[in-house]
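P.,

For your records, the input lines for the assembly:
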Amino acid sequence: MINAEPIRMFRRRFLPLFGGVLLLAGLRPALRSTASAVAARPALAQNPANDVCLACHGQPGMTTTLPSGETLYLTVDPQVYNNSVHGVNNQACTDCHVETSGYPHPTFQEQGVTTRRTLSLKLYRAACVQCHQDQYNAALDGVHDKALAAGDSNAAICTDCHGTHNITPPNQPRSRESQMCERCHSEIFELYKQSVHGAALLGEGNPDVPGCIDCHQVHSVEGPSSSGSFHLFSPEICRRCHADRTLMGKYNISADVFDTYVADFHGTTVALFQKASPDQQTNKPVCIDCHGVHNMRMVDDPESTVIKENLLATCQKCHPDATSNFPTSWISHYRPDPKRAPLVFFVNLFYAILIPAVLGVMVILVVLDVRKRIASRRKERQHA
Amino acid sequence: MPKAQQYRRFSISDRVEHWVLTISFGLLGLTGLVQQHVDSALATGIINLLGGIETVRLMHHIAAMVMMFETIYHIGVLGYKFFVLRTRATILPGKQDAINLVQSLRYNVGMSKDRPKQGRFTFEEKLEYWAVIWGTVVMGITGFMLWNPIATTHLLSGSFVPAAKAAHGKEALLAVLAILIWHLYHVHIRHLNLSMFKGTLNTEEMQDEHPAELADIQAGRIDPRPAAAAIARRRRVFFPVFGVLTVLMLVGIAFFVGFEKTSIATIPPAEEVVVYSPLTPTPLPTLPPAATPAPVQATATPAPGTAVETPALAAAPTWESGIGDMMKTKCGACHSSANKLGGLDLTSYQAAMAGGISGPAIVPGEANTSLLVTRQASGNHPGQLTAEELKQVTDWIEAGALEK
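Structure tokens returned:
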């Protein structure tokens, strides 16, 4: 696959940059000249009200140029902000923009800001955590923060998902949560859209199907990159809904799928690995390895990886030598019954009779022998 | 009759076979049953103790191979006894065993005063021996299918594999429980029979368990060993034939163990997808303005926060004749009594003259030292006055900054 990322980056970063440089050349000396005025900057008697900030920042088309050459858009639409969760709660601009409550604002150099991204990273660290400690702490355990710590500044921070001046409740409608993920994970989202879950969520607003965060967690986002245990424990995620008889009954889906999975080799091994070595990277298949990771379909969908026509190819992912009869050795999450798995059913029936019969006869013979021997010994003792 | 008299029951070869079987059977039972009951804490505890499920499966396979080798050896021993020594096949079940079983039952329930007079192998022993044969065959066939599911499904329908799994597990359970009930009782509890250690039983033990055999021995009714020449002749036929058979059976085991590579050993990717694939254009934290961006300019003309026209000023400006209104309009958003940025309130004459945190904003008669003028003159103040407005303010201050 050709990586389109560099081209996209170029378009996104550098084209606006050229415009910004030309337009804002006049501002640069002013930015530099304020650097020496830090000490003399007056402290505020109190934080200014939002209309003070909006007096300038409410003006349309306000921009400035960052040291990197990127254009920074400075306009905030008062209408948008006032309708946001923070606007409705009368949060002040300076609650988040703590460092820029005074005027003149500190320069970007003073703030250690070079690019638009460094500004976002700096702001969210100082701002969001003040009120949203729990969510912030949860995010520290997530894949995004780990990637960020590892130097990937593209990794999502609060504002990348929630927005900034336009924050509204993320679950209204519920599909919005998953669409936030699409911004950075558009390829995965494309697959999800085609899945039975994605189609139901995005198409009909189904409240029962999982969106991204139902499997990957919100804030403490986890995925296969976070640890080996995510793959290993992923059946537990599916189990939450697919072993729920009430929920599955609603859609006429079997709720036995989890138990029947654990009862066979794949699931047994995975269940044991979960207990013995939870961080193990394993090729033992979990639900998604057969059903698809993000594009799982209904089992009767012609595109499904587990429909009869496609099952051999799915088995061959791990069993490359498998031939046409091989897939039927998996009895499709059914509990063996005379119709669906007659051979297994009759083997079970045979042993259900043979085991008690054989052991029963043995026990009877042993018990009779024991009884007689005790009686004989007692008689011998009486004679003596 | 001297008690010390010992009767040969099992040769060293028989005893070695027994113990090899005991160890492999025990290992197979342990490592197999724990795999069947992974939902129990005891089973998972044992699995972890043995080094994890992969090790347990390896042990199970090795024990299975040991049992297969033992089976080949046992076939050889039987063949040697049958074809070379021509011993009577006393282990074969017959009508007499059924009679002995019934007699034993009658005795135990008090319908008869006599226990059955059993020979070299009692019906209890035969039951156990043939149970082992049955079990080995069932476990061997189903074990092959589980070990080689791809080879199996080349020939048979796929459902044979789960059926084999079901049979393998159930048969194992039957075998282990049968050993625990039948073997343990008859060999260890009823009497502690040590013949698999010592190889012999004494007269009393023979009288108790094998009276018919003892009677035969004491009466001299022992099958004569064939002539050495006959044995040598039969051996010359038997060993090459069995040698070929052994090679064939070993090839069979090699096929059993190493025929197919059922699954890959690597970890395939769960999904072929680029994880980080941002939408274009990537949404920005602050939305780009709809109109063409207009930069903040050093001496900007638009008045922030208002579109109200600056009122015309009188020839000799005072606060009340127009300067005050200009201040309220252009500076009042920030420098109001409510917001008071920098401690400065420019919305009333008294407040304006009081100045802010940095000092007096307006020094009457001295425009050059008035902060209001110097700040505005250097440009880029949010509420930037136009050059004309600044001149009017400067003139007003120079004229004494009068209120009226």
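Two observations worth noting. The two ends of chain A are 96 Å apart (CA to CA). Residues 9 and 133 of chain A are 33 Å apart (CA to CA).

Regards
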